[in-house]
Each structure stands twice: as structure tokens, then as C-alpha cells.
Amino acid sequence: MRVTKPATLAEAIRFLSTNPEAKILAGGTDLLPRLNQKLEYHDLLCCLDDLPELQGISLTAGGGLYIGASLRLWELAETPALAGYLAIQQAAAKVASPQIRNQATLGGNLLQENRCMFFNNQVPWSDVNKCFKWGGNQCFQYKGSKECVALFQSDLAPAMMAHGAQAVLTGSGGERRMPVAELYLSAGRKAIAHDEVLTGLVLPPLPAGSRSAYRRWTIRGSFDFPLVSCAVRLKVEAGAVADCAVVFGSAGIMPKAIDTSLIMGMAAGDPQGLAQKLMPLINKAVAPFRDTRVNAGVRVDMAKDCMAKALAAVCSG
Amino acid sequence: MNATMYELELTLNGKKVKDMIPSDMLLIDYLRNVRLLTGSKKACGAGECGACTVLMNGRPIYSCITLALQAQGKEIETIENLSDGDTLHPIQEAYLDAGAVQCGYCTPGMIMSTKALLQKEPQPGTQCIKEAMAGNLCRCTGYQQIIEAVQLASERMEQRRRDS
Q: In which residue ranges of chain B is pLDDT below 70?
């Protein structure tokens, strides 16, 4: 395996467009474990984590924030610039362990591979009875599935979606922007061309009266992937809900937002009432298959609990 | 730009070093096999155990899931930088005195995480210690003694600061 380390973004994009086999490496905390475990192989890596164009946080002309995709998760969790975007900071502070947060990047977290209890745990027969991830045509996690249904377990994606973040992609054809939610396609694929780099995220300005929170369920208190998680952003006007986003993480192959129009105008001082109203929507939002250690029913209950806790946090101010 | 070799320059334990290495070499392999610093251990290879923990620009990272070329221009500190000749660093002494070293395999990583924690937070509470050490596993399961060792190191380093 060869690894190249371009000095500039333009050089990186040129390299990617002339080397279709090259795989992007940022912090490395998602990709390198799979390479070490021989779950994946690449001839060529393109290391982007120190590119100057992908660093830093700045104010946008519209009063929002531009965050470079190579910002490390610890910076995201601790920077005062993001103090109002609490769900994002809470999510960044919960990812894995301190060592991972010191190395992993925002862009890498949003574009991490979907994970599966069979593939990532390297069960001994997995490369003989090949699943979709190994190039086969079956799924062990969800028997009868026509495609890979591995879970997308990013903590930051639901928080970014709840805050309406836009992804900035730069490639040979120039720059384009899309909502973070649209990055995610079926079977864990991402809506990014081979010669495109996720260079940053744009967060809209925080409207007055907005609060957000992120809650998740894990087996261990720290250093764990979420079994399921929920990011909530709520805007309150005169004591009533004026705007609200509820997004579930580890809900299936991509994060899932639910329709919150049911609670518009309801009293923001009654988080239990808000949660009650939204509960029926969760059954469809969370994919009905077992995770590593919990069954489908428990995952839905955990999602309800995460939402109730996140709503309670934003309603209490 | 498409070469198999890479000219790596970094500050390793306070000294500038320069080596020609394979571009796909892991940082842990560079430290152990090229620089012969075998204190950091290569164990899980998946960022799950913390035995390979070293400091990059003062912050703990897993050197088994970091490529050596990602350390280009950075400062790397390993367990070998802690003792002053035969005189142990107060954190190392505290680990011994608290009985926090059993088989010892996780200890270099644990100590590097402790060093980063105490630099940032000289007098951490128990919860703070647990959070900071969450990325290091001890399969002898001596966690209580490890927490006590961090507290002891914190007290001793505080005492030294007062004395000096």
C-alpha cells in the first residue's frame, strides 16, 4: 500500500481525479482499524488530515459558522465558538475515547463506514459465506435483505442535521453544497464523487430562543458506539414551540429525522407532552433489526427514551 | 508524490529526527522498529485497547491506528521520555507505589494518558480521571489501583510544585 500526502487541496483533488483507486484517509480512526484487521484493502491512500484548507472555524457572511472538515473532535467539543450549538458539542464529546477524539476529524466522523455486528466483529466464517460488504449477496444482520443494512453510527451526523448543517464538497468541477442529510444513500453509500473532498460544514446562525441537546444509549458509559441516539433542536417563542428538529442516530443505514409539525405551537414547558405526541413516529424511524446486543423492540424503546431526555433538556433551558 | 517511501521529520521525545520510511508504516511500527522505542505496545491494532498510546502535540492518540506520516512536523512523546536516567517520573513512581502495575502491558499507555490529563487538569476528580482514562483498557482489571495511582501522582506533583 502506498500513501500520498498532498500539500494543498488542489493537489489532492488532482491526485484523486487521476487515481481512481485512491482512498481518502483523514484522521484514520475509522479506516486504519479495518485495514489492520484485513477487513479492507487499498493500494493507494490519499492522506488529507493536515491540509490547510480543511482547518479552522470562521464566521460566514450570513452570521453562521464555517467549520473545516479536518477539525478534530476534541476541538469541536471544546471550542467556545460552538457553545450555542450544544447538541453538536455534546455529540463530539461522547465519541469513543479521548485518544479517538484527539485524532478523528469531523469530516471522517460524518463519512464513516456503516458498521455491522457480523462484518466488523470479523466472525470466522464471514469471508467464506460472503455478505454484501464482502462482495457477496446476502445480509446476516437482516435475513432476506436485498442490500447491506449495516448501521450508520455517527454521533455527529444527527446533531449536524438537527442544526441544519450544509456539507461543502470541493472537486474537479468546483464547489457544491448540500444538506448533511443528503450525504447518505442506501446501503451505506455516500453522495460524494471520487474526486470530491468534504472540505467543511456550514452551520446556519442560531435563531433567538433556540436550544439543542444530544442524548444516546450505549452499553458502556464511555468508549462505545451508540446503540441509538437522538439530537433535538427547539426554538421557543412566547412559551410555545416555534420550530423543532428531531433526528435519530444509529437508527438504520442513515440518520432519520421525524416530522415535528405535530408539536408546533404546543407549550414548550411540557416536554413530556411533546414527547408523547412524537412517540408514535419513532416506530417507523428506527429500523426494526437487532443490533450487537439489543433486539429491535429494545432499540425502539431506547430511541423513545433518548428523545424524551433530549426534549426534557432543551425544554428546561 | 506517488512514492512508496516518505521522508518523515518530527520531534520525537524533544529531539528532531528524520527518517526515510515506507509511506504506509504505522506510527507504532515506526516507534518500535525504526526508533527502537519499545515501551509503547502494539496490541489490538483497532483503537480499542490503548496499549499503543503516545502523545501527539501533547494529546494522547493511538499510534497503532495512526500512520507515521501523519506525525510529520509534529511532536511525539513516548513513555521513554518520562524518566530522568534512573530516576522515575512521579507518575511512574505513583503507579508502582499504588500497586497499579500488574502484568504491565497496559501501563505505558495508561501513564501517557495520565501525563496528558495532569498537564491539563493538575487535580482531577475521580470522574474526570475515569473519563480521561476511558481509552485505556487493563485486562488484569486493576482499575481501582490505576485511579489511585493517578490521584497519588497528582498529589505528589502538586507537592513538588509547592516545594520548588
A: 1-3
Quick one: A210-315 is in which CATH superfamily? CO dehydrogenase flavoprotein, C-terminal domain (3.30.390.50)
Q: Provide the pLDDT for residue A144.
A: 87
> How large is the ipTM?
0.96
Q: At residue B24, what is the residue type?
A: D
Binding-face residues of A in 185-244 toward B, CB within 8 A: 221-223
Q: How far apart are CA B35 and CA B23, in angstroms?
A: 16
Locate A59 and state its grid cell: 464566521
β pairing state of A2-4 and A44-47: parallel
CATH architecture for segment(s) B5-81: Roll (3.10)
Render the burial of A5-27: b for 16+ CB within 10 Å, e for the rest. bbeebeebbebbbebeebbbbbb
A25 touches chain B (CB under 8 A): yes
Q: Do A100 and B135 touch (CB under 8 A)?
A: yes
Report H helices in chain B.
27-29, 90-97, 107-120, 126-132, 143-163
CA distances from B143 to A174, A256, B129 (A): 52, 38, 11
SS3 A33: helix
Domain A52-203: CATH class, spelled out: alpha beta
The answer for residues whose C-beta is within 8 angstroms of residue A72's C-beta and 6 or more apart is: A27, A101, A102, A103, A104, A105, A106
